[in-house]
Amino acid sequence: MKTPPKPTFKQRLWSSLEPVVLILLRDIILFLIVLAALIVGFVGVAGLKALGMSPQRAEILETLHWYAYLIVASIFLLDMVIKTILEVARKKS
Amino acid sequence: MMALLHRFFWEDSRTRGATYAFTAVAGIIYASVRTLAFQKPERQVNLELVVFLLVSNFTIILLYCLRGGKIVSQPTAASTYRIPLFLRYVGAAACLILLTAPQLSVSAVQAAIVNQRLERAASSVEPDKAAHLPNNQLQARFQKITSIANTSIVYKIPASPDLVERVRSNLEATLRSVNPSREELHKSGVAAFIALVAYARANNVLISVNVPTVLLPHGETGNSMISQVPLKNHAIWWQGSAQGNAIWAIPTPALGAVFPVSHASVFFDAVNFNAFGLGRSFVETDNESQVVIMNATIEGAAQKLDAIVWLKIKFKDSKIIYSGGPLYLGDVTFENCLFQFGSDADSQKVLAQIKAARNQPVTVLSGVQ
Question: A36, B101, B180, B193: least CB-packed within 10 angstroms?
């Protein structure tokens, strides 16, 4: 009788990660969309500078842009951490 | 409680999305007010913002849990794991943007915009067209060129040297046709020309391969004592800090200029200079070099003006030397200065203009063929 081939490291890794990755995929896609929008915003600010926007106004836009980055990153990270903790806690209980 | 939390984070994506959107907008408003209205340092506001996000999100989640029994939320377990079609497409587009972002050069985008603006500027001051324009329209065009040049210098945006040269030559030809008696118009034309010459020189530095930029740190006092820095056969950009920097010349008059420049393109921005009245000059240049000095105060120096572009400069208690040659003064103030000017007609005319300004900024172009 033939024994089934032993799963490779990659297969084992994916099978353990797959459920989590699939569940989190929606949030990751949303995060990437917001990140892409922020990059478009960054290029937009650079374009406005080339079009002659005053340095003071450009600085305000850059400040807002930076805070947007920080907020998006913080919320995404926070959400992921709490989600993971909750899922682990739920599985244990 | 645990079940409600799990529902919030894993199932109720609509409420969660609304919560995050609300706290994100509130966070941006909070951080902007703290930075722009209260002038708090960015590092402090960053920390405050993270704390704000934590507190506001946890408060909303707590309220959600407390009202959990009353909220009729539709379990979205099935839909949570299914990604809507539009999200897939938008997500793919976002991935494409993110993947191409490293290849996208922001300075190339900016250069393209500036090139387009220069193209329009060049055609707007073609001598044939400009000759028939009314004063206010021509002045607006001159001011537009000044704005393009100043913006591009401030943001260090490179452009096509051919285009810059085209605008310069068109502007020069138009300027020749402007009657000097139309004082305001002539003055704004001269200001545009000087700004453009400064930009052309800055552009030469910017487009050079591997241009070193010397960023002067402010440190405790912002002052650096320098003996001499010869600048030969290369391009370099000296940039002072936002708080201001000053170069103090070591008081040895025999050393000559602190920055002797030969066969080089050099740009000094926001670098002040003090020679303590001991006869040293800031920069000494040859005819093959291109030097621009802007946004600075020069004190106690013995400075030759010709061949250097001076923009937004204040000379204080200095000896100013000029005896012909190309002179570019854009918004330059002379305060308590001693003038050693040649007896030729050009030098005397410039001297008369400076003296007539009486400590007010002057914009003068002279000795340019």
Answer: B180
For the four alpha carbons of B344, B347, B352 and B358, in that order, the dihedral sign comes to negative
β-partners of residue B297 are: B314
**What 3-state DSSP class applies to B127?**
helix
Structure tokens at B230: 């010869």
Taking a contact as any Cβ pair under 8 Å apart, which residues of chain A between 31 and 90 contact chain B? 32-33, 35-37, 39-40, 42-43, 46-47, 49-53, 55, 58, 60, 63-64, 66-68, 70-72, 74-75, 78-79, 82-83, 86-87, 89-90
Distance between CA atoms of residues B314 and B246, nearest Å: 13
Q: Which domain holds residue A78?
A: 23-92
Asked if residues B211 and B166 have their Cβ atoms less than 8 Å apart, the reply is: no
Residues with pLDDT less than 50, chain B: 73, 75-80
- SS3 string, B351-369, reads HHHHHHHCCCCEEEEECCC
Tell me if A77 is assigned to some domain: yes
pLDDT reported for residue B174: 92
Overall average pLDDT of the A28-51 stretch: 93
B183-207 vs B135-154: helix crossing angle, rounded to 10: 30
What would the pLDDT profile of A40-73 be if each residue is shown by its tens digit? 999 999 999 999 999 889 999 999 999 999 999 9
What is the widest separation between alpha-carbon atoms in chain B?
A: 94
Total domains in chain A come to 1
In a domain, residue A86? The reply is yes
DSSP, collapsed to helix, strand or coil, labels residue B249 as strand
Global pTM reads: 0.81
Which residues on A lie below 8 Å from B32 (Cβ)? 60, 63-64, 67
Would you state the structure tokens that stand for residue A15, as one six-digit string? 């099978």
For residue A5, being part of any structural domain is answered with no
Give the per-residue SS3 of B161-182.
HHHHHHHHHHHHHHHHHCCCCC
Measured in whole angstroms, the distance separating CA B208 from the mean position of its chain's CA atoms is 18
Record the tokens describing residue B5, joined without a space: 């939390």
Say if A28 falls within a structural domain. yes
Those residues whose C-beta lies under 8 Å from the C-beta of residue B127, and which sit 6 or more positions away, are B170, B173, B174, B177
User: Which residue do the tokens 């810059």 mark?
Assistant: B164
